[in-house]
Structures are given as structure tokens and as C-alpha cells.
Amino acid sequence: MLATFFAGVLLVGQTLGRDHSSLSRALLGDSVLEDPTLSHNVSSCPGYTLSSLQETETGLTAQLSLSGDACNAFGHDVVNLTLEVTYDTETRLHVNIYDTVDSQFTIPSSVIELAPGSNDSSLKNNSDLVFNYESSPFAFWITRRSEPDGQPLFDTRISSLPQTPIPPVRSTDNSTALDGFPLVFEDQYLQLTSALPIDTNVYGLGEVIANSGFRRAVGPGNGTIQTLWARDIADPVDENVQPLIVSHSSAGSDILLLTPPSSNVSLIEYRLLGGTLDFYFFSGPSPQKVVQKMRDADIPLEVMWNDIDLYHALRDFTSDPVSFPADEMKSFIEELASKNQHYIPIVDAAVAHTVNDTDIYDPYTRGVEMDVWIKNPDGSEYVGQVWPGYTVFPDWFSENATALWTEALTNWSNSGIEFSGIWLDMNEASSFCVGSCGTGADFSNTSVPFLLPGQPGNLVSSYPEGYNATVWGPSGNITVGGTSTYGNNFGPVGTLSRRGVGAGNQTDVDLNYPPYAIHNGFGRLAEHTLATNATHAGGYVELDVHNLWGLMEEKATHLALLSLRKGKRPFIISRSTFASSGKWTGHWLGDNFSLWEYMYYNIQGVLQFQLFQVPMVGADTCGFHGNTDEELCNRWMQLSAFMPFYRNHNGMGAISQEPYVWDSVANASRTAMQVRYSMLPYWYTLFANASTYGTPPVRALFFEFPNEPELFGIDRQFLIGSDILVTPVLKPNISTVDGIFPGRGSVVWRDWYTHQVVNATAGANTTLDAPLGHINVHVRDGAAILLHAEPAYTTAETRAGPYALLVTQDASGYAFGTAYVDDGESVPPTPHTTITFQAQKGQLAISSTGDYIVEQKLDTVTVLGVGADKPGSVQVDGQDVDESSWEFDAGLERLVVKGLGVDLNKGASLTWA
């Protein structure tokens, strides 16, 4: 089975198919304000005709002209377009369609700088991907050079494909039937549709948790609508949360996956609120006093996190003088550091507006002086409402924004809050009112317009599924509201609701109510975030750049930390993300719920972000909203120990969920964390490979086994790298779990803890024992994995100890692995060494290359699959090892050699016979 990445969507060959849930919403967007000049009838759009084609050194350019009368479906048709096709590398093809006069918004290169192409003219004839086209009506499709007659990877020739007739795309009765899929390019609406094989498996599209699973629903009569519009919402199911790597739409968009009735093709359709169609196609053969209590309980604690209760008056860059006095915080953080532990506080997106002239709050006043706050169309400050009351928002397009951010973080650190990293929250950006509601308001009003969890009327009373207990009481209703006081801010007409202030130089388009309404879960685009007519430096408007806010804050914070903590890699966790966020930050999966289904969604989210190139990702363990319970927290603490980002985070008003609260959870956590810390060299190598080659540390099973269709829908198990299989319990009140073992019997899987070979059913589920406190972990044959021999309380203490090596030979005796080692904190490029392990029958060779000196020695080597006969001798570099230093288990076919003291910088040879 072959696979391809395109526009951030991963598609894999054909599969057996399965049932999918129905679309949760109608396929049609509803215009909020009717404009009589717009038809809303895409089927009448004429498409485009290609002309004036010119070959370039690395591709081609051409003109696209409207083929007939404008349809003006959800905007006004752009008559002349330019097509640019560039063969960037052997495996990357760039297709860009934009308005010839270049008035549509495009993402500035200052925000996302894409890797340049190779400028190799030979790629036109030897690239793995080929651009094909028809002139009239214009359509294009992408094929592999090695399979010129094979299934196209992307194909907009919908009308030419063999299929049964399909009714119009938007009939007069607003049905969801589809037909004729012309390219639509308007000032406020873009549409492009591609055919897919009917059983195509689609992954990615953006951050979302879905009942249909990690694999997105495409099946006949059903499908997926994925909306890309960042919003502050507690992890909704099958709704929009974060956009990432789909075309390059920083404005809102819908992506549809569906199979029309009576059709033998499936479709992927992009519907955008503006901008251009800028696609990158990628080719590949396969998808590759809590602190002390934690120490007393001997549960490793690497980082202490602080949420907004740290703040004074809920203001960024402060600490409450009563609850968190600066001198005590300084002593506390220094104590953590002395024990090789770290401290990370939260930074919210919104910065408090001062209450009056006597109110001293430097971050706001300095921002005024440096002119960095987002504005209203008339140039006044845009004032929203968040936790501290009325707030302003940094405009990352302002030339001084990063300088202000660096100054604020530096002053905060110098005040005693000396952090090791930063946690960025609310950066969609979130606002509790619609519009610039603070304009002209009384700034002393700092009330939040809804009840917080745990307050009277909003007690936390929910428990996980399967929990049998009396709930604490009725929960209150949460209402979110606010009144816009900015004149004409959301009127249907008037100059302030029209662009006309830059942003692609368009005029006379509706900023507040685009004629096509994407399926935003909040409805109106400005709900719970910034108004779409808020303005930025350079003339940009929020409608165009909304989805970039979090990314730009991440970049500014990353650069600030580089300046503040010189020579050390910044560590950041952020909620909102966009394409290239992984260069600047990690991500946590938002405000989830203490429910078993959200533990399952944890896996979906992590797998999605591996595709998005944001490898450092994980969920709030045990859940954030609602009360957890002992069983759920037990299972979840173990699951998260095998995720890249691992944090237990609880909401206000809920019961305590520190792992030491329950003995069984403490025991389960210690067990799983010991494995996690022993695996740190393996994890570190995976992250180095992700940075260098883009390979994901956590992988769906099909990624390693693309020729096994039964794996395409598996998202209740996952692989760490290529060698470690994790099969967690995701349901309450059970003591077994079903899991599939990839390889269809050709791969030997061994239990991580016991090293016993699993008697697995080929190509189907195998039932495994899973008592409370045990998570099933298995290791693949053919692997050689460097480990820490003595997992300790922190990573620093663990790294100081010796190494161990686990070798799991396949049937031929072969095993292979590498380990990347550096100092763990210097900013790359930094000295590093790569250690290689290669086993053949009866021997293991260890070699290394690089300029980093590995101080810790290799103490223990465990070899599995050596055969049932005990070796007569064991040698290291030709010298016999005393028999008291090695042991053999015939039943496990296991040889363990201890006390080696091998210098990994020099390498060694281990033999047995």
C-alpha cells in the first residue's frame, strides 16, 4: 500500500471499509446576512480556462481566466488567476493558485518561512510527483512518475471520472447532493474539490476529537466536516478546535470528506473564506505542598506547574502577594532547582487593561508606549474581556511586540518567578465578550461573565462513566455574554465592517459576516474570540490572520526565552497551534474531561499532532473538567507515561487527583514512570529524528505496517517509534484488553516486563490480561534499544546513572538500533554522538560517531532470542566474561550480561557461543 501526504492530510491506500457516523451538520453554510448580489449557487460557477503556459526552469506558470459569466456564489469572482507549479525536491511539489493582481491575503513569510526548493531543473523529469492538467475547463491531478497510469493522488477532474450521475451541488431545496465541482475563486470564498478512492483512509485535517476515531469518516452517505477556526472551547467532540497544516488558510475554512449517494468516488472539498490556494504535495512509499508529598510517595516529579491562581488580580507576569509572595516563590523555585526539578507558570494571551491613572501595571503601559496592542478599525484599542477583566491583546505583526514580550518575561523572572519554561493558554485568542466590549467601559469592572467551577451554582458534580456514587449536587448553568460598546462594530453595513484597511488590498468585502458561514461551533466567528474586523499592524485584519495568533505568540515566546535563558533550549507548551508550531512549541490537548472516552481521545490527539510535526504533545492526565476517580486516574497515569508530554492537571472545584491520593494510583504511576524514565534515551533519539527527518516519535500502527489494512482504523493502541507497542485499558471495570499485534505472525512481540513471547493471533485481536495497575507494553523483534539502567526520581538523576541495552533478535538473529546523545539542553547545533548497535547471530557490535563525550558507561546488555541452548562462553572484545557476570534463561531465550563498564565513545564487540 502506498501513501502520500498532501496539504497536511495523510491518505493511505484502500481498506475494507467500516461504518461511519453521519455528518453532524448540514453540508451547507448559512449566510448570516443576505446579499442580493450573491447567488449562493456554486453549480452555476463557470470554472476557469488555462492559457499562456510557460515552462520555467523548475516547473511552469500559466494564466487562468474565468470561463463564463461570474456566479458570485459567496463573494465576487476573480476573473484572472495565476498558476505556478514548482518541483521543489524529488518528493515535494508546490502548486499555487492566486489572483493575478495579488490582492488576496497570503500569509507573510515573516510568520511562516517555508524551506526553499532545490532549484534543480532536472526535477521536472525525475521528481516522484507529476503535475498533470487539462486546459478547459481547467483541472489538475497529481500522479507518481513510477505509476503514470495509477490512481492519482489528488484529482480535481471530478466530472471526467467514471461515476453515476450526481445531482447539483446546491439544489433549490438545500439538499446535500453534489455534482459538478468547478474551481471557485472569489474575494470571500474559495472552493476546490478532489476525488479520492472510495475506501481511502484519511488522517489529520487539524486538531479534533471524533467519535469516528483517528481515521476520518469518508464512507458512502456519511463523512466529515472539519472546520478550521481556532476557538476557546473545552475539547468538543466532532467540532472545530485548532487549525493545522491544511493548505495555508489562516482565515476560517471548512473541509468536507464524503461519498455522494450512488457514487463510486469519495471527495475532499476545501471551502475557504478567502486567501489563495497554496498546496504542497509530499510523496513517500510509507508513512513513517504537593511537591514533598510526591517525593514522600516516591512518585517522580519533574515539573511544578502554576495556573492563573498564581497571579495577582489574575494579571499576567505577576504573583499574588498573599498566596504566592515573591520571596517565598523565589525560595520555592530555587529549592526545586536544587533537586533537579523545574518550574513552569502559565501566561495567558490577554493582558489586563489598567483600571485608572493610579493603577500601575507595566506590561500594559509599556505596550501602549511601544504601540503593540491590537486595534479597532478606527485606530482605538481593541478591548476584550478575559480573566482579569477588560484586556488588550498583543499584535504580533507590530515590530515591537516581541521586544515587549521579552521585557515582560524578563522582569517577571527577575522578580522571583524564575521559570524553566512557559505554558501559553487562551491563545486562540480568547475573549469572553463579542467585539471591543471594553471601549468606553468602566475598567474597574473585573467580573467574569460566568460562574467558575466550584462556585455556588456551578459545583463540580460529574464522575467518570462506570463510577457508582451519589453525585454532590446539581450543577449550575454557565452563560457567556457581553455587550459590544464599540460603535457600529457589528452592523450589517458601514465602512467599519468592510476591509479597506489593508490585508491583501481588498475593498468592499464583509469582515464581520462572510457570505459563506463555516461550521464554527460557536456560530458567529467573533464569539469567544477577537472580532473579525479587529486590525493589526501592516493593515492585516483578524478575519485573515485569526488562526495565526497562537503560532506568532509561540514564536515570540520562544525568541524571548532564547534571550532570557541564554544557551538553553526553550520549553513551551501552547494550546493554539498552526503549521510550523512544532518548531517553536509543544502542545497539550486542551481542557479535556475526566471521562473514559477522553482518555481514548488522548491517543487520537497525540497521533494527529505527530502528523502535524508537533511531536511534544499530551493530554491533561486524569482529566481537567469534572471529578476523576481512582480507576480512571490509575489507568490514565499509566497511559500518559508512554506519551511525549506527561502532566496531571486538575480543574478548580474538583476533587484532588494527585497520584498519591490513592495507593493503587501511586503504585501504578511508579511502575509506569520507571519504564518511562528507563526509556528516556529511546525517546530522546526519537525526538532527535523528528527534528532532523520529520519521523514521528508516536505512530499509528499502520505507519510501520502499511500493507495491513486491518490496522488502518486502529487508534486504541499505538507505537513508540517502530519498536514499542502500547495497549492501554480504555474502559472501566475490566481486567483484560484486546489488542492486535502487527506483522501477521511474521513479527515476534515480547512482553516488556517479563520478556515472554506473545502467543498472538495473526491479523486479529488477542486478549491480554490487564489487572488494575498494569499497562500492556510489548517490544518488537529486530530492535536494539538503549535504556537507562537505574531510573531515578528526576531525569537529571536518571541521566547520571549507567546505561543498559535491550536487544531483541529476530528469527535470523538480526537486530539494529541507534541512540542520539547530547547534553540535553544546549541550543542546536550542539555537540552530539550517535551510537549504533547491530546484532547478528552470536554477536553484537557497538560503534559511535560524533563529538559529544558520553560519560556514562554501558553496564548491562540483555539479548532476547539467542536460542534455547546455553552459550558456552561470553566475550567482550575477545576477552572472556566471568560466568558470574552473566546469566541465561532457556525458556525466555535470554542472555543477560552485567557489570560491563563499556565506554560507548569507543564501542565494543560482544559475542556468545
TrEMBL record:
What span is annotated as the signal peptide, if there is one?
Answer: 1-17
User: Could you tell me which residue ranges the Glycoside hydrolase family 31 TIM barrel domain spans?
Assistant: 288-686
Q: Tell me the ranges covered by the Glycosyl hydrolase family 31 C-terminal domain, including all copies.
A: 694-785
UniProt-listed Pfam families: Glyco_hydro_31_2nd, Glyco_hydro_31_3rd
UniProt-recorded Gene Ontology molecular function terms:
carbohydrate binding; hydrolase activity, hydrolyzing O-glycosyl compounds
Name the PROSITE patterns for this protein.
Answer: GLYCOSYL_HYDROL_F31_1, GLYCOSYL_HYDROL_F31_2
* Biological processes, Gene Ontology terms: carbohydrate metabolic process
Alphabetic keyword roster: Glycoprotein, Glycosidase, Hydrolase, Signal
What family does this belong to? Belongs to the glycosyl hydrolase 31 family.
Protein name per the record: Uncharacterized protein
